[in-house]
From TrEMBL:
Residues 210-376 form the Helicase ATP-binding domain. Component of the replication restart primosome. It is an enzyme of class 5 (isomerase). The lineage of its organism: Bacteria, Pseudomonadati, Pseudomonadota, Alphaproteobacteria, Rhodobacterales. Keywords: ATP-binding, DNA replication, DNA-binding, Helicase, Hydrolase, Isomerase, Metal-binding, Nucleotide-binding, Primosome, Zinc. It comes from the Bacteria. Its EC number is 5.6.2.4. This is Replication restart protein PriA. It holds the Pfam family PriA_C. Belongs to the helicase family. PriA subfamily.
Length: 732
């Protein structure tokens, strides 16, 4: 990097505030400041956090500049991090302050630091006792031997700091690091791993070779469920650790990662750093600092771990890379998978995208040679992929109000008899998706959103899945007033559980649905109980599809395989395919005598998605999806961006959007099309009307620049209008 890293006089500071877009000049404190140094600066009457982003302009009037208020006691952001935040901000059209917040807010760096070192009693009294020393020991005695910050102890005893240090030298007291500064235990890459199967060994070798280049590269590690992808990428982590570089593993459901953490511990002899919303602030600050100081070798985290200030990042693994939870659609709209690739390309690191069901984007990128690709085609060991079957609901004799077909019921019964587990998958939370009046036909909707209210019988409430609003289940119809005719239509997991209880009264059943668990711990415990065989029938929403190993599970029944096949969204087919393949993949993972069986209940056995799932021709499915995307000019063959505008007043937001659409020259100039404005897929949420526009552009077009120019042409927005830009939106 050619720019200087140290500024003795003036500095440009990226300031962490809503109002300021970009950077402001400040006077450096005596002694100057470094690039990336975190600081507190005055801004109007307030003090805000910022980061040194470059040298001051040089021609400013030094007398007019306000000085930096103080330096924050934290490692400075590395030039690499500054480049990452800048480029990600440009890509996602996010103002710099919001980007900086992503990288610095979680650990509360601007809070005064807690004690770094702790003094406590460690040995016998010193040979040479003085009044001052005795005073110090009395204070410790008075406080029951508790630990103190060094300054605090000296102050309480009324002595100077050197007295305390003297006692430390004498061995009477000891100084240890406070947790925030304790390095993480070293992981040992050379402990013996599990002996790998031949295809695993080859895959691991390929990833090791890629790491040895010490350059950027991305590999799509595609392997069927249970093929042992985790063991393979742990070998890549081992190589990275051997090189003395840091490794980051992103998981989609980090709260459920305890099994993964145990596997890491078994492989490397110690636990990695953990980063997700469930860890304490002290721990967050510790991990942030240790990442910057290279005192943590491996971090396992949720998508936001991408913003940790690693000193020397050598590898990023994105496990279940297709998972939609990697997309953040709030404040900063970004895909952690795509930004992992950006971060790695800046850091000279390798990326491994692991999945049994890759996104069409990654599949196409691998096909085009942008990514390397590794395939693991069979399950590890004796386990075979489950046998797949369809149950044609048009020909099944379903009893009224029942959702489990006779064939599926018979299979469940047989499993129960052999002490094996069955999983019934239905991706619908609650009791019933629709509550309607049998007198007038009206359905109960949310007052604030364009959405139906969903009955949750365990809570005895109707719940809006958009805004979370709840109301009692009405006795009289809100529309026609007739009493006693409200009825639940269609199944949710709770209703399915009711059917299971009626039809299999001696079976132990567990419902797994995110709304039924109040903490990650409770969910973890439920999963541990299932793994231990303490249940016969699992009834679950999509949370059961993700990565769990249930050794006794040999049957998966998809209650409604047609759910999600329809819909205007280009991704509908891809999503249902991924979900069904993943959930079917839970069956028969242990091998042994019992091969797994997955049964899809469907009205459309000839639908391309159902046929692909049944035949196991996944590659043909992705190829066909890719062709469709290409023909439609959709990602990754074209660029797409979504603009969502919302306002409490419907005509205000519609008018504004139409005005914007009329001035779309900057978009047309790059060959982009503007679609809409049209009501967003959910046209009203929390009382705000939502309008969407979509921009489709050729692949190489400078979309971000064109959008910025276009937004600058927009007329003055009505107050309270919210506008967000989503580059590479999920739904389209
Ligand atoms: P995937 O991530 O591809 O679904 P996993 O890595 O979870 O697969 O492996 C599936 C199962 O096989 C796990 O129980 C794992 O412990 C086991 N396994 C995979 N590879 C090996 C190996 N080389 N030696 C022993 N067990 C293995
Ligand atoms: Zn609502």
């Amino acid at each position: 990097m050619s720019r200087p890293l140290f500024y003795p006089h003036g500095a440009r500071i990226a300031v962490l505030t809503q109002e300021v877009v970009g950077v402001l000049d400040y006077l450096a404190p005596e002694g100057g400041v470094r690039l990336g140094q975190l600081v507190v600066v005055p801004l109007g009457p307030r003090r805000v956090m910022g980061a040194v982003w470059g040298q001051g302009m040089g021609d400013f009037d030094m007398a007019k500049l306000r000085p930096v208020a103080r330096l924050i006691d934290a490692p400075p952001l590395a030039p690499e991090m500054i480049e990452f935040l800048t480029r990600m901000g440009e890509y996602t059209l996010t103002p710099l302050p919001s980007m900086l917040r992503m990288a610095t807010r979680a650990p509360d760096l601007d809070q005064p630091p807690s004690a770094r070192r702790i003094i406590h009693r460690a040995g016998p009294p010193p040979d040479r006792m003085t009044d001052a020393r005795a005073a110090v020991l009395r204070v410790i005695e008075d406080h029951g031997g508790a630990g103190f910050a060094p300054g605090e102890l000296a102050q309480l005893a009324g002595v100077t700091g050197s007295v305390v240090q003297g006692l430390v030298k004498a061995g009477t007291l000891a100084e240890t690091l406070a947790p925030r500064d304790t390095p993480y235990p070293r992981l040992d890459p050379d402990l013996p791993g599990k002996p790998l199967a031949p295809d695993q060994g080859e895959a691991a070798g390929q990833l090791r070779d890629a790491l040895k280049t010490r350059r950027y590269g991305t590999t799509l590690l595609r392997g069927v469920t249970g093929s042992g992808k985790t063991e393979v990428y742990l070998e890549a982590v081992a190589e990275c650790l051997r090189q003395g570089r840091q490794a980051l593993v992103l998981l989609p459901e980090i709260a459920l990662s305890s099994e993964f953490l145990s596997r890491v511990e078994a492989r490397f002899g110690a636990r990695p750093g953990e980063w997700h919303s469930g860890i304490t602030r002290t721990e967050r600050r510790r991990l942030w600092t240790m990442a910057a100081q290279h005192h943590v070798g491996m971090v396992v985290g949720a998508r936001s771990a991408l913003f940790l200030p690693f000193a020397d990042l050598g590898l990023i693994v994105v496990d279940e890379e297709h998972d939609s939870s990697y997309k953040q659609e709030d404040v900063v709209f970004y895909s952690a998978r795509d930004m992992a690739v950006l971060r790695a390309s800046i850091a000279g690191a390798q990326v491994v995208l692991a999945s049994a069901t890759p996104s069409v984007e990654s599949w196409v990128n691998a096909g085009a040679g942008k990514y390397a690709r590794i395939d693991l085609r069979s399950r590890y060991g004796t386990a075979e992929l489950p046998e797949m079957g369809a149950i044609d609901l048009r020909e099944s004799e379903m009893e009224k109000g029942r959702w489990i077909s006779p064939r599926l019921a018979a299979e469940i019964r047989a499993r129960k008899g052999r002490g094996e587990q069955s999983l019934l998958f239905l991706n619908r939370r609650g009791y019933a998706p629709i509550t309607a009046c049998r007198a007038c036909g009206q359905q109960v909707g949310c007052d604030q959103c364009d959405a139906r209210m969903v009955e949750h019988r365990f809570q005895n409430r109707l719940v809006c899945h958009q805004c979370g609003e709840t109301k009692p289940i009405p006795v009289a119809c809100p529309s026609c007033g007739v009493e006693g005719r409200m009825t639940a239509i269609g199944p949710g997991v709770e209703r399915l559980a009711e059917e299971v209880a009626e039809r299999f009264p001696d079976a132990r059943a567990t419902v797994l649905s995110s709304d039924l668990f109040h903490s990650a711990r409770a969910l973890k415990e439920a999963i541990a109980q299932i793994s231990a065989g303490e249940t016969d029938i699992i009834i679950g929403t999509q949370i059961v599809a993700k990565g769990h190993n249930f050794p006794r599970l040999t049957l998966v029944g998809v209650i409604d395989a047609d759910l999600g096949l329809q819909g205007a969204d280009m991704r509908a087919a891809e999503r249902s395919f991924q979900l069904m393949r993943q959930v079917a993949g839970r069956a028969g993972r242990e091998g042994g005598d019992a091969r797994g069986l997955a049964l899809l209940q469907t009205h459309q056995p000839a639908h391309p998605v159902i046929r692909a799932i049944l035949s196991g021709e996944d590659e043909a499915f992705w190829d066909a999806e890719a062709v469709q995307r290409q023909q439609a000019g959709m990602p990754p063959f074209g660029r797409l961006a979504g603009i969502i505008l919302s306002h409490p007043d419907q005509s205000a937001v519609e008018n504004h959007a139409r005005e914007m659409a009329r001035r779309a020259d900057p978009l047309h100039q790059i060959g982009a099309e503007l679609w809409g404005p049209a009501p967003a897929p959910i046209a009203r949420v929390r009382g705000r009307y939502r309008v969407r526009m979509l921009i489709r552009a050729p692949r190489q077009a400078p979309v971000q620049t064109a959008i910025s120019r276009w937004l600058a042409l927009a007329p003055k927005p009505p107050s309270n209008l919210r506008l967000s830009v989503d580059i590479d939106p999920q739904g389209f």
